[in-house]
């Protein structure tokens, strides 16, 4: 079984750490690439010396420089990238974000947990959340 290639496009260092920690707990081979915004992700995807064709992209919506929706629009217009599986992983529950992402052909829309009383992320729930969704995604990819 080949290692799943994952591109994580996320600007929040704590979320990146949570995804990395959760991936380590899943008994599946993977290689994780990280970009902090859409521009950096495009540079990685288009760099022929890297040669990355990810099995799945985990994409945040709210990022600086190029957000997730802008990134999606660009890859869906690119012949080499338009069929990539993209899962939105965001704290945004805006209906407009979700419908626009769905129109751009995403594979899933995952809302990250927050502690709404303090408006901060809860590491314990984030870890369980990421493990649950990543396990489903990775098992689906390896079939």
TrEMBL record:
Response regulatory domain ranges (all copies): 5-127
Pfam families: Response_reg
Keywords: Phosphoprotein
Signal peptide: none
Membrane-crossing residue ranges in chain numbering: none
4-aspartylphosphate modification, residue list: 60
Domain of life from the UniProt record: Bacteria
InterPro entries hit by this protein: CheY-like_superfamily, Sig_transdc_resp-reg_receiver, TCS_response_regulator
Keyword 4Fe-4S belongs to the record: no
PANTHER family: RESPONSE REGULATOR RCP1 (PTHR44520:SF2), RESPONSE REGULATOR RCP1-RELATED (PTHR44520)
Name assigned to this protein: Response regulator
Source organism per UniProt: Flavobacterium procerum
């Amino acid at each position: 079984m080949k290692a799943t290639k994952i591109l994580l496009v996320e600007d929040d260092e704590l979320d990146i750490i949570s995804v990395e920690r959760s991936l380590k707990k899943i008994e599946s081979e993977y290689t994780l690439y990280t970009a902090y915004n859409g521009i950096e992700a495009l540079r990685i995807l288009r760099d022929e010396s890297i040669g990355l064709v990810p099995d799945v992209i985990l994409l945040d919506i709210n990022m600086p420089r190029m957000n997730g929706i802008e990134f999606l629009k660009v890859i869906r217009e690119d012949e080499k990238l338009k069929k990539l599986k993209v899962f939105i992983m965001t704290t945004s529950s805006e209906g407009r974000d979700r419908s626009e992402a769905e129109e751009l052909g995403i594979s899933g829309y995952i809302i990250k947990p927050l502690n709404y009383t303090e408006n901060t992320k809860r590491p314990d729930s984030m870890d369980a959340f990421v493990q649950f969704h990543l396990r489903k995604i990775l098992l689906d990819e390896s079939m």
